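Worked Example 4.2. Consider the chain below.
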Amino acid sequence: MMFFPYVVGSTLGAAAVINMVTAVQATIAAIHYRKHINWRLLITPLAAYFVVSWAVVHFAAGLDNQVLKRMLGVLLVGLSIYFIFIAKRVRMRASLGNGLLAGSLGGVMSALFAIGGPPVSLYFSSATEEKEDYLATIQGYFMISNAYVVVLRFTSGVVTHHVLLCAAVGLAGMLLGTKLGNTVFQKINADTMRKAIYVMMAVSGVVMLLT
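Applying the procedure from the previous section yields the following structure tokens:
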């Protein structure tokens, strides 16, 4: 979402492209790790996600693109600050209330900007013990949640022929990027890479707020 709004031409269109690409990517990963998916753990956050994202998708359809771009700018700056200074100190205990909270926040962020990962990532990291269970369960979540919100975007009229074309290009780029990324990742310091991404998020958010 740092770049796609400029390519697609609208914030909601960019979110739709990312939702479609993520749904395919998560489905591939979920199938690969299917034996480790904790399906029962998905029920609570997904239930909240379904209700909240439905409401927000229909609400966002009536917002001006410039307003959405400003909101996205605020979110990107806020997330960069969170990841750089706060994330390592925050924990979310696995409970019914926290599952509903994580799914609700994820629903809002995903429906608006296709950035619904942080709240549920925090929740699933506390609710699972093994890294394989965490990876599999969160990919199962992304598979279902993104597929659901893509359907909502179709029914709300966000998905146009242009958006579908961008999604097709995005899928090809995702497959190529995954292959190249696995090679490059081995040669890059992970912590340095994360910090660079967070700084880019902040800069992108500021640009969106000022333009």
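Residues 131-155 form the longest helix (25 residues). The two ends are 16 Å apart (CA to CA). Compare this with Example 4.1 before moving on.
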